[in-house]
Amino acid sequence: MTTPNNRVFVSTASHWEIAIKISTGKLKLAEPFPDFVQHAITDNGFAILPIEPRHTAELIALPYHHRDPFDRMIVAQAVVETMPIISVDPILDSYPIRRLW
Fold it and tell me: 49, exposed or middle or buried, with CB in 10 Å at 0-12, 13-18, 19+?
């Protein structure tokens, strides 16, 4: 997710989903997960966007255009924070957000 001043945020939902995929064997990394987070997020100057109650509250009214709970949380955060998201998933265009890519 990016803000108007081009600061880039990574949702907690994103690295949470990666951790789950690693634990289920659906994703393998070339380095330990903590190192990956350090290199992929922190070293690139990205900030972590924590999941807050106002984000989860947005889920209550969010239509079920998309069933993936992680994508839905990212959409809810984008709605609340009024920031675009970076995704290749065109289903997300059904939500009142701006999708880049």
Answer: buried
Angle between helices 69-81 and 12-23 in degrees, nearest 10: 170
Closest CA to 68 of 82, 87, 43, 48: 87
| Alpha carbon 73 to its chain's center | 7
In the prediction, which pLDDT does 5 show? Answer: 63
Alpha-carbon gap, residue 47 to 66, rounded angstroms: 25
User: For residue 63, which of 91, 89, 32, 83 has the smallest C-alpha distance?
Assistant: 91
Domain boundaries along the sequence of the chain:
9-100
The model scores a pTM over 0.85: yes
φ and ψ at residue 75, rounded to 5 degrees: -65, -45
Which two three-digit tokens encode residue 1?
A: 């997710």
